[in-house]
Specification:
The structure holds two protein chains of two kinds. Chain A is an alpha/beta fold. Chain A has helices spanning 8-18, 46-58, 79-85, 88-91, 103-120, 132-147, 160-169, 189-195, 218-226, 246-249, 311-314, 327-364, 390-399, 429-442, and strands spanning 65-66, 124-125, 151-155, 176-180, 200-207, 230-235, 253-257, 273-277, 290-294, 300-304, 370-371, 381-385, 402-403, 406-407, 418-422. Chain B is an alpha/beta fold. Classes of the chains: A alpha/beta, B alpha/beta.
Chain lengths: 443, 482
């Protein structure tokens, strides 16, 4: 069923109007370059495809109680979010090149940019990037262009998934990427200050960091600025319901993964990279930006602006190659934040912190379970040391119905017994109690 | 329309998220907290629903209007794909689950979708293997060029330059540059195709590869494409196929058979996933045998026992380009589409897309300049150069077509055609729609002769008129701050 409207009679009439046969329309493709019939499975009807995909969906174990985070979280998504973002007027439109027939998308992106600025206390945000990792990479590239320097410092408590992505992207470029080892779960000041020099473009940190620890990077911002470098901070947007903002710390560029703002986990995407900065760096920003202006009659309206930065104008000298971004995911985040509102976001963040705090108490009461770090301040994720290999324990807990956390040995040496546990507002007291009981049972 | 922030009423609440249940035991150090809550709007759920419903009505989309935006393949997006992507077994699946020990068994359904999608794309494109990770077409280009760089590094080749035709999408030179290459444009010949003599002149040992769209952005298929690939291969360069226009030849010809080494496919174009107002898309990349070892990790493999697993240990891999396995939700929708169409369905897609484009070109050629009047593929490029002499430019025609109830074609691209209007109808549109659109275009051409002001003053039916873009760039009002 190829979703084609024209009938055979209509096709004949069209070919007659053109004055060619159906074969003539492909005469420019030499026979030697044609493929025969493709070897694909037989077509399925809608009913068949729904049945088949329901079977595949059933092979995915979404019934597990999730204490798994690692930068990607199981938050509650209000029904109104999808009801609004799935309107065909939004999801079947494209990049708003024609502002007169795209004011819905354009105003929404402007509001999204405003929302990200308010959340992070920054001055400018773009219309979205692919995900938190590519957003951090783009921020790093901005800093390299802005400072015309070659060295990047990155704290190893930045999400390791982002760090491996940045390593891939920079392999063919003339960049010195220096990773500093964390000090007891926090950014290692001494190592960073030692490495910070006149060729350093930026320091990259994350808050809360991959271990869930909360930090205040004001000192790093000041030190970076003293050397003419920038501070780039990746954040977990939900945490900004209560935590000190990167803007208040003096960060120059803020990025993050927007999945937690109303997007389903969807096995890794589509997600949402956000990027915000100060006005002085706007012309180095990658991606689309929407601005407010007026028409000839003075009526306010929205357009894509500062396009001279972009690939369709600047080609090989563009700030980025990005074209399609994650507009619908940005709209999702906007609708989510609008539904929660000022008090709702604060409440969700506080609930995450409270429930994580409760879980921390319950879990560390278990004999042999200890906090890995001395850092007292965590948001909704924590690293605990178990008396046994964490990977094994997680495997045993899967059998009991829990995705209990992430084994840190996957990315960090010497952390074989460490587990990263996340608690969102969705987890109930009963679920936390049951996890504690199950963990005690398997240890 | 008022901004959502202007509708805020202090103290108003939307929904309640969750029950407290546990004591507020957390006692974070004050210095780590924000001084005041983020200035988000305070609204009821109904306020929010009204606001975004009203905003949506200011948009044209494929569901509401004919949207012949050239090079973007704005075809109909089947609703069934939305329904299935919402199944909890897919939507609520945490991407780290398969990375837990024994976790692979928890996501077999999703891994099977990914693996089968790889196989389907291999067959459709004639390639040895695909990565599904790139999250958009341009991201696929970057991934492809990174593999190109890895290949040359591995062979000790000292390559510095990537060639693109002058008609290329802007993303091609931008992607090559970001991956660390210099970019050189090869001019088109009088027929609008890459000039083989000029290509021969540009070729040398420093050339890492060439990036081609085929059919190109003029909608023309280059019958010498195999020759171009052979020429590149003779300097140990690689041929890159930009799949933006795959809709024209899907089921008819395969990039791999044409001689290409690397291919990206825009799932949101050829395979009907929603464009979302500017994404999310997906840009899987396929490669020939000699490049398979450079594919990003992870790779989904099928084991002998019939189960699926993720493979990470690939010493020559370029590494990670995405946090996980790509835009799974988009890949899933495209997978469903391919499974529903099958081989014959896909071939019908190309045939009807090409028929529709040629029908429009035929209907318009007496009224507009058609710089390359030969048979086109899935899109045709016309020029408003005749109308421009009367002061009516491509931009004016685009705005006038809005008043006739259609989304405009792509304007001023490709840049090698003056006053270009690039029209891509796609296969899902009916003859009635094409007739109505071309009638409106013919009427605009007539008015350009008799009453040009009636065209240059458009649009008149939209909530706002043409916007002051200079003011937008100058004022830089890009956020409403408290």
């Amino acid at each position: 069923m190829p979703y084609i409207a024209n009938t055979d009679a209509q096709r004949r009439a069209m070919l007659e109007a053109i004055g060619l046969s159906a074969e003539d329309l492909f005469a420019d493709v030499p026979p030697a370059l044609r493929c025969g019939p493709l070897n694909l499975p037989e077509p399925l009807s809608e009913q068949q495809v729904r049945g088949r995909l329901a079977e595949l969906a059933a092979k995915n174990h979404v019934e597990l109680t999730l204490f798994l985070g690692g930068g990607f979280y199981d938050h509650f998504i209000p029904a109104a979010v999808y009801a609004l973002t799935s309107r065909g007027e939004f999801y079947t439109a494209y990049t708003p090149y024609q502002p007169e027939v795209s004011q819905g998308t354009l105003q929404a992106i402007y509001e999204y940019q405003s929302m990200i600025c308010r959340l992070t206390e920054m001055e400018a945000a773009n219309a979205s990037l692919y995900d938190g990792g590519t957003a951090l990479y783009e921020a790093m590239m901005m800093a390299l262009r802005r400072t015309r320097r070659h060295k990047i410092l990155i704290d190893d408590s930045v999400n390791p998934i982002y760090r491996v992505m940045i390593q891939s992207y920079t392999r063919n470029l003339n960049i010195q990427l220096v990773e500093t080892a964390n000090a007891d779960g926090l950014a290692n000041r001494r190592a960073l200050f030692d490495e910070l020099d006149d060729d350093t473009a930026a320091i990259l940190v994350q808050n809360p960091n991959f271990f869930g620890c909360i930090d205040d990077y004001t000192d790093l911002a000041e030190a970076a600025h003293d050397k003419g470098a920038l501070l780039i901070c990746s954040v977990y947007p939900i945490s900004l319901g209560i935590l000190k903002t990167p803007g208040a710390m003096g960060a120059d560029i803020v990025t993050g993964e927007g999945q937690s703002l109303g997007l389903p986990m969807s096995f890794g995407g589509p997600y949402l990279g956000f990027l915000a900065t100060r006005k002085e760096h706007v012309r180095q920003m990658p991606g689309r930006i929407v601005g407010r202006t007026v028409d000839a009659e003075g009526r306010p309206g929205f357009v894509l602006t500062l396009q001279a930065r972009e690939q369709h104008i600047r080609r090989d000298r563009a700030t980025s190659n990005i074209c399609s971004n994650e507009a619908l995911c940005a709209l999702t985040a906007l609708v989510y934040l609008s539904l929660l509102g000022k008090e709702g976001l604060r409440e969700v963040a506080q609930l995450c912190a409270d429930k994580a705090s409760y879980a921390y108490q319950k879990l560390t009461d278990i004999p042999g379970v200890r906090p890995r770090f001395h850092a007292k301040w965590v948001f909704n994720e924590m690293v605990l040391d178990l008396p046994r290999d964490a990977g094994d324990v997680i495997g045993r807990l899967i059998e009991k119905g829990f995705a209990a956390g992430f084994p840190l040995s996957r990315y960090y040496k010497g952390m074989d017994q460490s587990i990263l546990i996340a608690v969102t507002e969705k987890r109930t007291k009963q679920e936390i109690d049951m996890l504690a009981a199950a963990l005690e049972d398997v240890l | 329309m008022e901004l959502i922030f202007e509708k805020s009423v202090p103290g108003r609440r939307g929904l309640t998220i969750a029950q407290a249940e546990v004591p507020t035991s957390i006692n974070l150090k004050a210095g780590l907290l924000r001084d005041k809550p983020a200035e988000l709007p305070e609204l009821s759920e109904l306020d929010v629903v009204r606001h975004f419903t009203a905003l949506s009505r200011l948009n044209f989309g494929v569901d509401t209007h004919f949207y012949p935006l050239g090079s973007c393949t704005m075809k109909y997006n089947p609703k069934v794909t939305e329904r299935i992507a919402g199944y909890p077994g897919f939507a609520h699946l945490h991407p780290l689950l398969p990375q837990l020990r024994m976790g692979g068994s928890l996501t077999q359904g999703a891994l099977q979708v990914l693996h089968e999608m790889d196989l389907l794309l291999r067959e459709i494109c004639g390639m040895a293997a695909f990565t599904l990770q790139p999250m958009a077409g341009a991201h696929g280009e970057l991934t492809g060029i990174m593999m190109m760089a890895a290949y040359h590094r591995d062979r000790g080749n000292q390559k510095t330059t990537v060639l693109v035709p002058d008609s290329a999408h802007g993303t091609n030179p931008a992607s090559a540059a970001i991956a660390g290459y210099a970019v050189k444009a090869v001019p088109s010949d009088a027929d609008g195709l890459m000039d083989l003599k000029k290509l021969a002149k540009a070729l040398n040992d420093k050339v890492a590869g060439v990036m081609l769209t085929c059919p190109n952005t003029l909608g023309l298929f280059n019958p010498h494409v195999r020759e171009i690939c052979d020429m590149i291969h003779r300097v140990d360069g690689l041929a890159y196929y930009d799949g933006a226009n795959l809709n024209a030849i899907v089921g008819k010809a395969r990039p791999g058979d044409l001689g290409f080494d690397i291919v990206h496919v825009n799932l949101h174009k050829t395979f009907a996933t929603p464009h979302g107002g500017g994404g999310p898309g997906a840009g899987p990349v396929g490669v020939v045998d000699k490049l398979v070892e450079y594919l990003p990790v992870s790779v989904v493999v099928k084991r002998e026992d019939g189960t699926y697993a993720l493979e990470y240990h690939r010493p020559k891999s370029i590494g990670y380009v995405a946090p996980f396995y790509g835009n799974f939700g988009v890949i899933l929708r495209a997978y469903i589409y391919i499974r529903m169409l099958g081989a014959t369905g896909l071939e019908r897609v190309a045939e009807n897309a090409v028929l529709n484009a040629n029908y429009m070109q035929t209907r318009l050629r007496d009224h507009y300049e058609v710089p390359h009047p030969q048979v086109c593929k899935h899109e045709c490029v016309i020029s408003a150069s005749r109308q421009a002499k009367r002061g009516v430019h491509a931009l004016d025609i685009a705005k006038a077509i809005i008043d006739a109830g259609f989304h405009p074609p792509t304007m001023y691209f490709p840049t090698i055609v003056k006053e270009a209007l690039m029209i891509e109808p796609t296969e899902t549109e009916s003859k009635e729609t094409l007739d109505a659109f071309t009638d409106a275009m013919i009427d605009i051409a007539r008015r350009a002769e008799t009453d040009p002001d009636s065209v240059t003053s458009c649009p008149k039916t939209t909530p706002i008129g043409r916007l002051d873009e200079t003011k937008a760039a100058r004022d830089m009002d890009i956020a409403c701050l408290p």
